[in-house]
Amino acid sequence: MSLTRACTDSLLQCLRVAAKAIAHDVAFMEVCGTHTTSAFRCGLPSVMPPNVRLISGPGCPVCVTSQGDIDRLIDLGSRRDVILCTYGDMLRVPGRQGNLENARVHGSRIEVVYSSMDAVKLARTQPDREVVFAAVGFETTAPATAAAICEAQRLNVKNFSVLASHKRIIPAMRALLTDGEIPRIKGFLCPGHVSVIIGSEVYQSIVDEFGVSCVVGGFEPPQLISALVCLTELVVNNKTALVNQYPEAVHAKGNRWALALLEQIFEPGDARWRGMGNIPDSGLVLRREYQRFDAALRFNLPEPQEREPAGCICGKVISGAALPVQCKLFARACTPISPIGPCMVSSEGTCSAWFKYGPSKQLKNPRSHSDELLEVQS
């Protein structure tokens, strides 16, 4: 038996022992889409104690991008004078007028890039075209967008702009905890990648204000299970705490250089989240001195209209209010080959994870999520 396997088995036993000391069901939310995919890929849901559940949260950057912002990107991508640069996960997200992949097939200039700097370089080589970077993601990717804007300003690149749809995770966590339709969350498995940037200290306000534990964890099976053991033992001991179990990557203060860059270029602003509506100060908007790089202003884009695809419940899935298998479209009309909602498109989407790795017993005979929620005690 390998050392990793032995460690995993030992941690699972610790989790089961701790769970037996709890007389009711408890629900923990993993905020990060990578945690969701990692958990399903290694089969974690199938070996969890029956009274300890993981709920997937709004940690997939593609999934939480509002329908209106997707439509804005498709609008920009269809313009003859625009080259739209985007990460690959955004290509197949459906909008009201198709998706970016279809727009590219029909002649639009849609470029898949691996970094925001690629968009700046393209703008310099194509001075007769407007180059727009689709800036999506949490605090993980926002510093790269800020760095690209700094570089474009330094080089005086006048045909470069960004359509910023960046999100901040802490306001979203607060919104979840104050939403009466969301199950009672006893603790958060906090995102590893985002926490590298923002640090672990910022979660203390969640612990203090809501009495909900926050554990920062890594992505390998032993790290995931260790974080769940910590959260479960805190419930057993009737305690709440902030615990950083990913110290090799996450520091208390985060990445100070990245945070300073974000502070220079962006400021908090209201943002639209798919299924969660407008959340105050949950977005990052360009400061006044950098608004010449704002594509929404440059192209005078109209205010987006929020219209979800008919029958799609992605909004409920990413907020933990529903399971993918409760969607009538799941694995029928909506599959990874022909996705209807973003949760099936993104590699970090909950529906995609359920489709690829979900236990067969859950797919064939899922429990009513509403019944589960009633069982979760405060």
Short summary:
This protein is an alpha/beta fold.
Describe the structure.
This protein is of the alpha/beta class and 378 residues long. It has two domains: 1-309, 3-Layer(aba) Sandwich (Rossmann fold); 314-375, no CATH class. The chain contains 19 helices and eleven strands. The chain has a five-stranded parallel beta sheet with strand order 2-1-7-8-9. Strands 4-3-5-6 form a four-stranded parallel beta sheet, with helices on both faces. Strands 10-11 form a two-stranded antiparallel ribbon.
Helix and strand layout, with pairings?
Elements: H1 3-20, E1 26-30, H2 33-41, H3 44-47, E2 52-56, H4 61-64, H5 67-77, E3 82-86, H6 100-105, E4 109-112, H7 116-125, E5 130-137, H8 142-154, E6 160-166, H9 169-177, E7 187-190, H10 192-198, H11 204-210, E8 213-216, H12 221-236, E9 242-244, H13 256-265, E10 266-273, E11 277-286, H14 295-298, H15 314-318, H16 342-345, H17 350-357, H18 360-364, H19 369-375
Parallel strand pairs: 1-2, 1-7, 3-4, 3-5, 5-6, 7-8, 8-9
Antiparallel strand pairs: 10-11
Helix pairs in contact: 1-12, 2-17, 7-8, 8-13
